[in-house]
Structure to design on (87 residues):
């Protein structure tokens, strides 16, 4: 029973549901992410170009900031995006 529950997540592709989202979304992705391939954000960007989605790619970042400066830069970029998109 437990196996059936967890195996049900294998075929779920969240990107398939993004077409139903009509709010602004910011995707933040490190290009050296070893957990979630950066191609996943690129796929959404290519598949849904007319959506109100924006993308921030960090060339030297993995799954998260690797140092203080990278973390500060990322938080500042996210804060600027939130302020710019505040209704």
């Amino acid at each position: 029973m437990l196996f059936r529950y967890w195996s049900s997540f294998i075929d779920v592709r969240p990107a398939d549901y993004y077409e139903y989202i009509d709010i602004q979304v910011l995707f933040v992705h490190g290009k050296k992410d070893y957990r979630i391939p950066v191609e996943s954000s690129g796929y959404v960007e290519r598949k849904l170009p007319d959506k109100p989605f924006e993308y921030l790619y960090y060339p030297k970042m993995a799954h998260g900031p690797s140092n203080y400066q990278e973390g500060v830069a990322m938080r500042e970029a996210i804060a600027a995006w939130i302020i710019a998109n505040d209704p």
Strands lie at 25-30, 53-58.
